[in-house]
Amino acid sequence: MQNTFYFLRHAETEPDVSKPISNWALSEKGITDSQALAKNHPFGSIDSIIISEERKALQTMISISPKLGHQNVTKYASLNELDRDLTGYLEKTPYEKAVKSALTNLDEPYKNDIGEWETARDALTRFSKCIDNIDKETEGKRILMIGHAYTINLYFASRLGKLNEVCDRLQTNGPLDWGMVGKNRVLIDIAKTKG
What we know:
two-stranded antiparallel ribbon, 6 helices, six-stranded mixed beta sheet, 17% strand
């Protein structure tokens, strides 16, 4: 890896059952929290910002980027969250079962009567390829990536050889948590696990 990447989960969203999940926006708390992070961000000097094409990543970036003193922002569809739009909104208990199913059986999509999710393996593959391509295009840069819970946690678990633990690792971090990858290794793990 030729660059240092900071992977930041977007701020808290406001569920909206009338819209696909990929179109949800930040909650008022999410906006306030991302503005607070901008005032005391831990990222130091950033050369560029990359984000998914989803609204919640864009809104998080809008709050943070002015404080970083950098406006070079590029959107990539390949950095979008694991696609869950076709199954519609899930209440808490069915959602938790769906997450466990999707992140335990990486090659099997979660399905319900309405549709199915993208597989976790497919989401990880497209996300990883995008990061690898960005890394090949530049050298020695500090890049902030604003993205999503599933894809970022899959990426970190994969780099650490812990894909079998990704579901448990996901539960240890939340909105606006971050990790760092550089020098071909995880420098700061997004998961708040012991050991």
